[in-house]
Every structure is written in C-alpha cells, then in structure tokens.
Amino acid sequence: MIIPVILAGGSGKRLWPLSRANFPKQIISFDKNQKTFFQDTVLRLKKSAPIVLCNNSQRFFIKEQLESINISAESIILEPCSKNTAPAIVSAAHKALQISEDPILLVMPSDHFFQNNDAFYEAVAIGEFYADAGYIVALGSIPTYPTTAFGYIEKGNTLFDHIPSLKCSGQAASISSFVEKPDIISAKKYIKTGNYFWNSGIFIFKASVIRQEFNKFAPQIYNLTLKAVQKGYYNLGFFRIDKDLYSQCPNISIDYTVMEKTDKGVVVTFNSVWNDIGTWDNIWRFAQKDENDNVAEGDVILMNVKNSYVHSTRRLIAAYGIEDIIAVETSDAVLIAKKEVSHNIKNIVDRLEALNREEVFFHKKVYRPWGMYEIIDSGEKFLVKKIIVNSNSALSLQKHNCRAEHWTVVKGQAVANRGGEEFIIKENESIYIPAKVIHSLKNLQKTSLEIIEIQSGEYIGEDDIIRFEDKYGRITQ
User: Fold this and answer.
1) Measured between alpha carbons, how far is 229 from 89 in angstroms, rounded to an integer?
2) I need a surface site. Which of 69, 199, 400, 431 has the fewest CB within 10 A?
3) Beta-carbon neighbour count of residue 250 at 10 Å?
4) How far is the C-alpha of 325 from the C-alpha of 319, rounded, in Å?
C-alpha cells in the first residue's frame, strides 16, 4: 500500500506579492483557467487519498481545494509551527502507522510542475520496488541546464538493475552526497559530469524504515514528534498534533537529518521537464510567451518589451521599452525586479516582515472557511468590504465592541440574525448592526451570496470580534 504524503505548509516568499504567508503559492492558480499547484499535485496521484500537512491558517483552503476536485484526504495534519521537512515527514510516518500496517510513503511537495507525468509514474514504480526492499528513495530530475535554484544529488558507484517488468527512462543508483544550492560555476561542473541530478524533494520509503533512521540519526526529533502525534486529536476533520512538543523540534530538513547520513539512500532519476516553480523567473520559463518572449497576465499593454513577465490582478499595467523585468501588481502591492534575481525576492519579503507590514501576511482579498472578503476602501474610522458567502455557509454568531456594520445584499439572499431576531435580506435590501449587538449571517441558498459591508467606529481592526457560536470551531475563548 502506498500512501502519498503532501507537504503543503510552505509560505512561497519568492512569489510575493501574489503569494502571502496566509495564502501561499500552492493554493493559488497563476492561470485562472488551470488548477492550483496543490490540486495538480493531488490529481497527479490518480485519486489516491493522501496525508496532507499544512499549517492552521491554511486548513480550510486545503479542505476546500480537495472538495472541489472530489478527493478525500486520508488525514489533514495541522503543523502548529513551521519546522522544515524533517519533523513534518517523520510526523506523517507516525500517523501513517496509525492508519495502516507499515505502508510505503510517497512524500512530495505540493507546488511542483511535471510536463511528463508518465516519467514520474515510472520513477515511482521503480522507487516503490526499492522502498519495499528497505531503501530510502530520493527522486532526482535529470538536469537540462545549470541552475543555482535547486539542490543536487550526486549518485554513487553502485548501480542497481531495473525490474524487467517495469520501464523507466532514468536509472537507479546509490547516493554519494546531497549538495545545497551551488554557485553557477559549480552547477556547470555538475552538469558536465553527468553524475548529479536536481533534488526534487520527493521521497519514497516504508514508514517503519524512515522512523528507524530518524531514531538512529535524529532521536530528539523522533521522540518529540512521536509524542506530539500520540497526543494529537481530531477537530472538525483536522488532526492537530501537540504544539508544545512539536515546537521543541529543531528547524531542519530531512536531507541534513537523515539522507546525508543513512546508508540506505537510493536515487531514482526521471527524465521529464520538472520544476518546483519557486520563483517568478520559473513562472515565466514555463508559461506561454508572445513573439517577444513576454508573458502577460491580466490587464496588460506592452510596447517594445522583451523577455519579461507582467502580471496584473486589478489595474492596468502599461510597460514601454524594458527587458528582462518582473512586474506583478495586486490591489495592495506592486513588485518590480530584474528577472535574473527573482530568486532573491524573499529578501525584500523578510524586510517587510521585519517592518511588520501586513502585506507579507494578507491580501486585500482574504479567504475564510465560509467564503471570502475583499477590502474595497478604508479610512481612519471606516472600512468597506465586498463579502462572498458560499452556498449553505454562515458567518459566526458574534459581536463587535467598537464598530457598527451596515450590510447591503447585491446578489443572492441572506438570513441575518440581529439581537436574536431573524431577517430575510434580499437583493438591494440592507440591515444595520449597531456595535455590541450579537449578530450572524447565513446563506441558505444554492448559489453564493454577495454583500457590501460598511464598518464604522472608533476602531475597526479584525481582532474586535467575540465569537459565541461557529460551525468552524473558531469560538473566542
């Protein structure tokens, strides 16, 4: 039995401002006509029920993304804090052994691009064979150009025979070393030798084997995560592992903790166009381009522009006489950078984070378990939102101490509770909610509900809320 394990807790800093901490790249569709990276990853698994690891703020996005493609997860594990891949992966192994008797785990990030899924399936089939024999398999992509964006796997001297009944365009070999992202000179040398492969971050192993190796090489992580999972519990369909124990784990990758030390490592290569889509340069690389090698998304007009990526989500972008530029616009931020240094955009995000800028964490468009809202305008004592409530969804029963709210229905029909009295609010009708009055909003229709909310008061922060009842478990303590 193979259980896929999808790591979906990343923040995607290098794809800011479209990707934010609370709405990262894996759950964004960069092309409105396509699935998100996370959905593509799940669908690549051919309806297999995965274990998904994500953080608390992403839990409802992940659940909605699965439901929209009719996939049920084996378990959605909530990481109480980000601790890199080592604690996450061994936690998934602990959980998998509660679900099944020593399954093979296929561990993969949620934001990868494969042009040839067949090559991926072939490599997984070979990897399953070696995993069943007790090896820890890393999938390596055969590199097509030197790059500093990826880590590398160096193959060892031992070459393994393929299983005759399976075909694979790559090869299987022992692992000599893992190499962090190199400089460009080293990357060019690696390509010439033919002994190095891009580290895809995809692993295949038995749950028992990876636990044994963690217990051997990283016993602190093994014991903390084991106890954290044992103390875990289900809440609203999500599995919450113990925060106090998990937070004591070091922030470290599986490469450092196990893969660089184990003698059970095997690299299985695959021959497919692959990328982890971690930078705007990579988004440009794999997108359809015009005759001047430009990619334009949204309301964009280009003249005398070459080799550039320009993305508008809201406003018109007009560009003239530029080359090799990344320009990305959202309703609250604009990024402009040279394409060749787009992998360093995380540095400016770190700077914004140090300044405590909310643009690092939130969009003007904010997703909630019941739907979403978008901030249209704001001032010192007012804020205007467009709110969309999904079919058969509801906002919590709540009150605000400092602000009043005025709701106007522009599409659909709302059931509003104000002070214990219910009102049916139809299109072009409105209701006023004074401060300190308990209220809620429901959409009992089969279509989405759209309202305009005007907040006014001395303080209009999102933390001015007390929840009394909430179907999503967000009760104010």
Assistant:
1) 12
2) 69
3) 14
4) 10
Residue 107 has which token pair? 């561990």
Answer yes or no: are the C-beta atoms of 235 and 80 closer than 8 Å.
no
Question: How far is it, in rounded angstroms, from Cα 21 to Cα 81?
Answer: 13
Tokens of 450: 């759209």
Q: Considering only CA atoms, which of 116, 96, 114 is closest in space to residue 106?
A: 96
Q: Give the Cβ contact number of residue 286 at 10 Å.
A: 14
pLDDT in tens, the chain (477 residues): 799 999 998 777 889 998 888 778 888 877 665 788 899 899 988 878 999 999 888 888 888 889 888 899 999 999 999 899 999 999 999 999 999 999 999 999 988 888 778 888 888 989 999 999 999 999 998 888 888 888 899 998 877 766 656 665 567 889 999 988 888 999 999 999 989 999 999 999 999 999 999 999 999 999 999 999 999 999 888 999 999 999 999 999 999 999 999 999 999 988 777 877 778 988 898 888 999 999 999 999 999 999 999 999 889 999 999 999 999 999 889 999 999 888 889 999 999 999 999 888 887 877 788 988 989 888 889 999 999 999 999 999 999 999 999 999 999 999 999 999 999 999 999 999 999 999 999 999 999 999 999 999 999 988 899 999 988 777 764
Q: Calculate the alpha carbon distances from 383 to 47, 356, 406, 418, 459 in Å.
A: 43, 21, 11, 20, 10
Task: Provide CB contacts within 8 A for 357, sequence distance 6+.
Answer: none
Q: How far apart are the first and last CA of the chain?
A: 42
Question: Strand, coil or helix: what is 30?
Answer: coil
**365-469 carries CATH number 2.60.120.10:** yes
At residue 472, what are phi and psi to the nearest 5 degrees? -105, 10
Residue 138's identity, in one-letter code, is: A
Domain-wise residue ranges, the chain: 2-275, 280-353, 365-469
Strand partners for 327: 310, 336
Give the span between the Cα atoms of 271 and 162, in whole angstroms.
15
Looking at domain 2-275, which CATH architecture does it have?
Answer: Alpha-Beta Complex (3.90)
* Residues 177 and 77: beta-carbon distance below 8 Å: no
Alpha carbon distance 345, 281 (integer Å): 11
Q: What are phi and psi of 233, to 5 degrees?
A: -155, 155
DSSP 373: E
Separation of alpha carbons 122 and 269, rounded Å:
10
Contacts of 418 (CB under 8 A, 6+ apart): 431, 433, 437, 439
Q: pTM to 2 decimals?
A: 0.83
